[in-house]
Structures are given as C-alpha cells and as structure tokens.
Amino acid sequence: MFERPQFGNSAILVNISFPGHIAEEALSEFKELALAAGADIVGIITAQRTNPEPKYFIGSGKAAEIQSLVSATQAELVLFNHELSPAQERNLERLFECRVLDRTGLILDIFAQRARTFEGKLQVELAQLQHIATRLVRGWTHLERQRGGIGLRGPGETQLESDRRLIRHRIKTIKQRLEKVRRQRTQGRRARHRSEIPTVSVVGYTNAGKSTLFNRLARADVYVANKPFATLDPTLRRVELPNGTPLILADTVGFIRDLPHDLVDAFRATLEETQKADLLLHVIDASNKNKEAQIEQVNAVLKQIDAQEIPQLIIYNKIDLLTDIQPRLDRDSNGTPRRVWVCATTGAGFDLLQQALSELLAKTVIYKEIRLSPEQGRLRATLYELNAIDKEQLDENGNWLLSIRLSTADYAKLFP
C-alpha cells in the first residue's frame, strides 16, 4: 500500500531534451522556476529522448538512476520540466517514494505563493482545482476497489466521488465569482471607453522588467523582484504623458514557455485587460540571448487569448547590460514608432518612449486655439481643472486666448 508523501523543499530537477528542444535555455529557466518556488536543488538529471515513454515518461534505466539519487540525497521532491499525465505522476511516486511534480504543478505553486488580491487567489485556486481534478485518484489508491468480491467494495469509490463532487462544486462557485469580476472589469472598460481614455497594456516574457517599466511610467510602487512571476495581480494606473495625453496603463502577469492552459483559462478575466487594450507595450529583455524565442512565446500566448491583432510597441529593456547600445527610437518606412531601446532601472530612453506613446495615441487628443470672453470664466476654470491649458494670453478687448489640449470626449462635452 502506497501512502502519498508530503510536500518537501529538497528537490531533484529532471529535464529531458526532445528533438527541436533548446536544452540549455529550458534547464536555465527551469532552475529559476524551482528556486522561485522555494526549492532547495540537491540534484539535476538530464537526458535525451525521441518520444516520452508511456509509463514513466522517461526510460526505466533513467528512472532507476533518479531513484538511486533520491535515496542518496534523501530528496523530498522530484520536479519534471514537462507535463506529466496523472498515471505517470502516480507511477513515478510509487517508484521514487517521494512527491513528484510536473511543470504545470510547479508554476501553479509559484502562482499560489504570489497571489495577494482576492481575485488573484480565486484565479489560482481555480487553476489548481482544474489541474488536480484529474489527479485525485493518486491519493486514494489504497481505498480503490481493485477487484470484485466481498469486502472489496465501497469506501474507495465513495470517498473519491465525494471529493470529485466537492471539487466540481468549488470550481462552479469560483467561476461564478470570477464572472462577477469580469462584469465589473467590463463596466470599468466601458466607462474608460466613454471618456475615450486609451488603455495601454504592458506584456512580455516573465522577468523582462515589465513592473520596473510600469513603475517608472506610472510613478507607482508595484512589487518588483528579479525572479519569475514577481507580478501576478493586475494593476491599473492613470498616466498623463508630457504632452497631456491621458492613458490607462495596465501591468499584467508575465508569459512563459508552455504556459499551462488551466492558467490561461483561470486568468481570462485578468487577461481581458490585454485583449481589450488599444496598444500593447511588448517588453523584451534585450540582454537575454534567447530573446527571439521568448518573443515567439509571448506572441503565441497573445494569439491564444485573441490579442494578436492589437498594435504593439516593442520595448527593448535592460540596455544597461549591453555594450555600445544607446537609447533610441526605431521607426518604420512610414515614420511610425515601432521599437524603443530603454533601461527601466535608470530611466534612460524614457523620453523617447513617452514621445512614441504620444505619437501613437495622438488621435485621442485634440489641440486647439480658442478665444473666451470674460463671461466664459466658468469654462476657463473647468479647463484649468482638467489641466488642459498649455498657454494663455489676453487680447486688447480683455478676451482670453488659450492653447488647449483635450481628449476628444472632453472636447465634445465642453464645446458641443
């Protein structure tokens, strides 16, 4: 009879290379994920295979090697940088006699640690429940009905069905709550749309520097750390560019290779901020030698959430880690801003970034020269409240000559 082991932190990492698989990049990223989850790495096993093996995912010889390493290091956990089937996890746990976790389970654990808001915790719990629903039998194998006969019926199936029913009910409840969150977000977006304030969503591979860039643009204090998924809960801030253009800036969760489908589904309410954005700031770690592969992964996730058609401004970040690279703004053949090279930590190149944003969002702002009579003092006061007056002077008749900048919505209200 096999009792399901408890979770531990001393871990052995297993990374298998398949054809077309970038082993070095995958292993480096896997180590970062394991450390971010709090694992104490006591061993690393690598191998090459053409196809996964049905029973253990790995070959029996490599499984025996891992079993020996588990015994020698007294490891409490074996982490696979791959997606395992429920049967493979169960077979490996029986063989190793310790906890086995696949890549999806590891990412879910990191998300569970990072979630701070009520919404974020709900989304993580939903993803975890959807993941473990198919793995529930693993913990009840000693109560399963193995064969027919007197004394071998009942409790296993009853307990299993009871747990499955509880999980189904909890999933339903969480989805109802998240649907309420989605409706609230939709109402907020409608209000922003009515005021014609554009939404700019910051997206990119995990640990590319999105939150640092967000903080500098929005003068905010979102949590920043040099580790995967430091940002989990979405953050929105109203920002005004130097030319007066207002925008809503949204910081989002980082994307990663093989992002679990359960997470994408669970975080759909949050990812709608990206789906409905007017512009995406695609932040890229310019110092990462695998940045091209990371760009492909981000675009793949954007396609998965139907956001691939939204215009992008590419932000090459961390140029301070490169030699002979200065801040610059790259344009296409039509003169439209396409790429900006910046350092979010020092602020280098942010004047170019703000210039690019101003040009791309210019259609939402109206610039006018107007004349107001002394009787229109109330309108002048309103324009000052909106911080819409760039320049003011008096003519010989006592009228105000104003240079103003207003959103199209505010202009329509004040000057119908």
What do these coordinates show?
The structure is a single chain. With 416 residues, the chain is an alpha/beta fold. It folds into 3 domains: 10-101, GTPase HflX, N-terminal domain (Rossmann fold, 3-Layer(aba) Sandwich), CATH 3.40.50; 194-360, Rossmann fold (3-Layer(aba) Sandwich); 365-414. Helices cover 41% and strands 21% of the residues. The protein has helices spanning 23-36, 60-73, 86-96, 103-114, 118-132, 155-194, 210-218, 261-266, 268-275, 291-304, 350-360, 377-385, 408-414, and strands at residues 10-17, 40-48, 77-80, 99-101, 199-204, 235-240, 246-251, 279-285, 312-317, 328-331, 337-341, 365-372, 389-394, 400-407. The strands form 3 sheets. It has a 7-stranded mixed sheet with strand order 6-7-5-8-9-11-10, with helices on both faces. Helix 5 (118-132) packs antiparallel against helix 6 (155-194). It is elongated and about 95 Å long. The N and C termini lie far apart (79 Å). Mean pLDDT is 79; it is low at 1-7 and 140-150.
TL;DR of this structure?
With 416 residues, this protein is an alpha/beta fold. It is 41% helix and 21% strand.
Per CATH, the architecture of the largest domain is 3-Layer(aba) Sandwich
Spans where pLDDT lies below 50 across 5 or more residues: 1-7, 140-150
Give the SSE order as H and E letters: EHEHEHEHHHEHEEHHEHEEEHEHEEH
* DSSP strand content: 15-25%
Q: Strands of the biggest beta sheet: in what spatial order?
A: 6-7-5-8-9-11-10
**First and last CA, distance:** 79 Å
CATH topology descriptor of the largest domain: Rossmann fold
Q: Would you tell me the structural class of the helices and strands?
A: alpha/beta
- Helix fraction by DSSP (H/I, runs of at least 4): 40-55%
Describe the largest sheet. Answer: 7 strands, mixed
At the fourth level of CATH, the homologous superfamily of the largest domain is P-loop containing nucleotide triphosphate hydrolases
Shape: elongated
